[in-house]
Structure formats: structure tokens, C-alpha cells
Amino acid sequence: RKGSVIITGASSGLGLATAKALSETGKWHVIMACRDFLKAERAAKSAGMSKENYTVMHLDLASLDSVRQFVRNFKESRRPLDVLVCNAAVYQPTAKEPTFTADGIELSVGTNHLGHFLLSRLLLDNMKQSDYPSKRLIIVGSITGNTNTLAGNVPPKANLGDMRGLAGGLNGLNSSTMIDGGDFDGAKAYKDSKVCNMLTMQEFHRRYHEDTGITFASLYPGCIATTGLFREHIPLFRLLFPPFQKFITKGYVSEEESGKRLAQVVSDPSLTKSGVYWSWNKDSASFENQLSEEASDVAKARRVWEISEKLVGLA
Ligand code: NDP
């Protein structure tokens, strides 16, 4: 049978490019888990994906109810689940004030981390039941959350601190909207959420890899300077960022190439090692990258896991 893969945020950018790359092999059925049904259908059509290779299902990661409803709908569909890709994200670098999920949690961490945390916890059983030879749970990370890299040292830097804000629910009422308890900063909230993504992947690996055989992985796909992720940035930034990445940092990668990279992490027989953060060198060859000290901190990973369980109602 075909492999069955769920990709969140497959309506644009990296998620769409990955859905396209996998569907073109004819070996995968892609479930595009998206908040805007029509946009996703149109995106799949204009990418030339053929109808028998994908299904669009509604998922709004900024609502824990929607996550639970998506999981119910998916279970009712009786499709197997072989690979789950947590890809969707919001980035609000110019936001002056925080915005919130349906549950009253700061939007970047609420969507990028907590929505995906609940989704992957609820779908783990489906993956366990799959008879597919190589089952994988992939959480898209980023270099910007990695303070051991040049890009990760551009201020404001990611820093989870003692996680007092996260423990308080990031609600802006009786707790800070930032994980470390500081003042709201949209760019930092995004980076913090990506550190949570990378810590969660490793905690999954420690808790479940041996028993389930599932491969848990994260990746930095390269700087895809043209995606919608930068839609909220100022116009001058959006104009100059792609050539800057192409010619100065040389970290630029096209959407198509980034999609091929993530598709490798989904299906390549040589990328089955669990607990790995994948990156690609200048010749587009994959290698196991190092995470920053904070993004590989075992105690922090456990604490993020435990607090997140409470916030999403699993504990
Ligand atoms: P895009 O903005 O193009 O894609 C993000 C996707 O997430 C969109 O499909 C968007 O949906 C979806 N999304 C946002 N909020 C929600 C929500 N509440 N529920 C469901 N879906 C939602 O950005 P990219 O493709 O660049 O980003 C994809 C991933 O790649 C992210 O995890 C990002 O952190 C990571 N990444 C990107 C880099 C880059 O340079 N671009 C570098 C490193 C990592 P909609 O279409 O409806 O807006």
C-alpha cells in the first residue's frame, strides 16, 4: 500500500512543497491538515497534485478543540498513519502586542508548540498501530532557536529561562505571555516555540523510540526566504531578505529544494535514525547537526513536556 502521511500547514511554503514532492512519487497519500480548507485545495491544484494522492482535512492548531476534532475525524476515516509532520507555524516579528489562541495562550507558542504537542500525543496510538516498515514523527525546527549558530545569535535570542510564563499558561492575565516570564516579543516567542519543538522531539525519542520503533526527528530545512512565514515583516525586509540570504549568508534555499529535504526525512531509507536534528550542507547532502545547549537540555525537555501536558489537558 501507499504510505500515509499527515502534514500540518500544507497550504503553503515548506508544507506544500513537501506534499507536492511526496505525492509526485506515487508512493504516498498526503493528508493536508490545514486551517483554510479552500486555500489548501487551491494550493494542491495549482501545485499539480493529483486528486488520488491527497486529502485536505481541517485543523486549526490555535484551538485545542480543533486539534481534538481533527484527531476524531482522522480516526473515523480509518486511514493508517505512518508519518506525522508537524510543520505549520506562525511568526509575528513586528507584533507590538501579543495575540492569543482560542484557549487564551500566546499565539506563537500556542500554535507552533502546544497545538502540535497535543496533536502528536493524541496520534501516537495510530502510529503505533500502523504496520508500515518505517514510521516517523517529524517536528520542523529552526536554526533561529539555536544559539550555537550565527543566525541563532541575532537578538532577541531564544531563552526559556525557568519557564515561569509557560507554567502560568502564557495568558497575559496572571502570567507573562513569554515562556521565560519576560515582556512580549514576537520574534523571541517564535524562537522559543522552535526550541520547544526541538526539545519535544528529543523527549518523544527518549520516552517512546525503544518501545515503538518510531523514528523521531527534527530538521532545519535551510532559509526559505520566500515563504509566507515572513508575511508580517516590514516591506523593506521582505524585499531584501531573499537576496541577502542568497548572496551574503548563502543559506538561501528554494521552496522546492526545502520540500525535497523534508520529503527525505519522511521517506528516505537512510534517514531512519531517531533523535536526530537534520541539516544540509552546501551540496545539499544531509548530516546530523548539533543542537544548542538549551535545545538539547534533558531536564528542560522533561519540564517542557510536563508543563505542556497540563496546559493541553493531558495531565
Ligand atoms: P508558511 O507561512 O509559508 O507556512 C506556514 C503554514 O502554517 C501555512 O500553511 C499556514 O496556514 C499554517 N498555519 C499557521 N497557523 C496555523 C494554524 N493555527 N493552524 C493550522 N495551520 C496553520 O511558512 P514556512 O513554509 O516557511 O514554514 C513552515 C515551517 O518551516 C515552520 O515550522 C517554520 O518554523 C519552519 N522554518 C521556516 C524557515 C524559513 O526560512 N521559511 C526556516 C526554518 C524553519 P495558512 O496557509 O492558512 O496561512
UniProtKB/TrEMBL annotation:
Origin organism of this chain?
A: Arctium lappa
Write the lineage as a comma-separated list: Eukaryota, Viridiplantae, Streptophyta, Embryophyta, Tracheophyta
Its recorded name reads Uncharacterized protein
Q: Which domain of life is it from?
A: Eukaryota
